[in-house]
Every structure is written in structure tokens, then in C-alpha cells.
Amino acid sequence: MALMVLAVGCLALAIAASLLFGGKPTSIADAFTGLVGGTDPYLAAVLDARIDRTLMGVLSGAALAVSGVIIQGITRNPLGDPGLLGITVGAGAAVVTVSAITGNGVAVGAGAVWVAFAGALTTVLVVFMVGARSASGSVVKLLLTGAVVSAVLTAYRQAIILTHPAVFDSFRHWVVGSLGGRDGSVALSVAPALGIGFILALMVSSSLNNLALGEEMATSLGTPVRLVRVGGIVAAALLAGAATAAVGPIAFVGLVVPHLARSVVGTDHRVQIPLALLLGATLMVAADTVGRVIARPEDIMVGIVTAWIGAPFLLVAVRRGWAAR
């Protein structure tokens, strides 16, 4: 409980920093005035934009982190992340396809969210249907299928963007991942998928503990292994697909945060998932704030900052053996 309270406190501090700091520093008094409806229209516009970014950071960070916990639990692979099932590649492939057909660049908004979300879910369904055809429905088969489908979609995506200059020019910004330019309509668009995904994640959390003991042991304990695997994959796809659709592909959050949560609370997924939710939201919001502060008056996209943070952390985790826990 103390850890959860500490995690909530860290998230609250990250949210406060996100509202106060950016291209232009804002005092606590000014921020409070703007939040309660001050008369300065510029300050109000700045705070509105920061509120939207912070909201998207909380939702997408929490979703990616919980998705990573589930995927690592289902596959029993400490290096598992949403990219294993082709979620991010599928979302990108759908976006560039629609952009090439319509002749427009990659848009950011509620419409683009649904396009990317549909692509992510379709890719996961293909991976699961093909990978689950093995007699044992093995996890290895599922992961290999995800790698093959991802490779094919990556080649397809590259072919599209190289032959459509307008698509390439805008896609290169979307593919890095950013919280900027997203308003409340984007959050509302992905909210139902995120809500269902979080509920499913909590429902399978107890069964993931049994699955960690091995499929045979889990079956002997009365765990419906296939049902748990399907439910977990659906939850991971909903969470990561919605987050990717909303803010673009964000690297390392779904890989680093599960390791951090596991190193703190152990292997109990019933505790890992809520803690990862809080830590993922904190990491995303903090990374976005750092990107805005160090590059004033411009900002560095959050996907770049999370890669800066995640790569060294992952290296330390591997060297210290955290990945094997």
C-alpha cells in the first residue's frame, strides 16, 4: 500500500510539473488563475494545451505499461513488449495506407485514431489466428508469427511512404510519437478501448500468476490457459493499439516499466498491473515535460525522450539480471 501511495504521489508531481513547465515557465499562481478561468487568453490557451498533453500522457503511458506487463506474463518473455504482436507496425501500416489512398498526409485527430486502432487490432487478430494453429498453441509459435507479420508490414509501410512523398513527410513525425496536437476528442475516441483493456487486464492478473509456473502446472491448478491467453492478448491489443493510435508508436515504455514494477513488488501480477499503470503514466508525463523544457521554445517528441531513458535502463537491467526475475 505504501508503494502505491508513493507511486500516486510521483504521478501527481509529474502532472503538476507538466502543467507548470514547458516552452514558457508558468508560476503556480498563474497556473491556478488560468485553471479557474483567468482573463489572460494566452495563458488559458497554454494551459489548455498542457492539460490535453498531460491527459494523453497519463492514458497512453498507463496503457503501454499495462500492455507490456500482460505480454511479458503471457509469453513468459522478459523482453516482451507490444511490438512483439505487431501492434505498432499494424497501426502505422493502416495510417499510411489510408493516407496514400486519400492523398493527404498523416493526420492527427479522432479520425486518424480509429484508422490506426483498426490496423493494430487487425494485425493482432491475424497474428493470433495464424500463431494459434499449432497443435500446442505454443507461445513460441505466436511470437514467431508476430515477427513475420511485423516484417511484412514494415516492408509494405516503407514501400508506401517511399512512393508517396506527402505521406512520408508527415509520417516521419507521427512515427516518432508525440503528445502534442492531441485534444480531448482523441482521448474520448480511445477511452472505451482503454477502459475495456484495463478491466480485462485486472481480470486475468490472478491467472497470469499461475501461468508463470508453466502451462502444465497452470492447467493442474484449474487455470483455463487458452482462455487466459486470449483474454490477455485482447487486453494488450486494446491498450497498446489505442495508445499507439492516439500518440504514435512510443518505444520502451511497455518494456521498461514492467521490469521496474517487477523489481519493486515481485512477480504477483495483481500488484504489478496497478503499479505499472501508475509508473507508466508518470514516466510518459515526465518524459514529455523534459522534452519541452530542455528544448525551449521548441520541444523534443516524447518518443525520443523515452528512448533516451529506456535504452540505458534496459542495459542496466540486463547486466544486473533484472530481466531474468
Would you mind describing this structure in some detail?
With 325 residues, this protein is mainly α. It has one domain (2-324): ABC transporter involved in vitamin B12 uptake, BtuC (Orthogonal Bundle). 77% of the residues lie in helices and 0% in strands. The protein is built from 13 helices and no strands. Helix 4 runs parallel beside helix 6 (139-163). The mean pLDDT is 82.
Topology readout:
Blueprint: H1 2-20, H2 28-35, H3 41-75, H4 87-102, H5 110-131, H6 139-163, H7 165-174, H8 184-211, H9 215-220, H10 225-247, H11 253-265, H12 269-293, H13 302-320
Helix pairs in contact: 1-3, 1-12, 2-3, 3-8, 3-10, 3-11, 3-12, 4-5, 4-6, 4-10, 5-6, 5-10, 6-7, 8-10, 8-12, 11-12, 11-13, 12-13
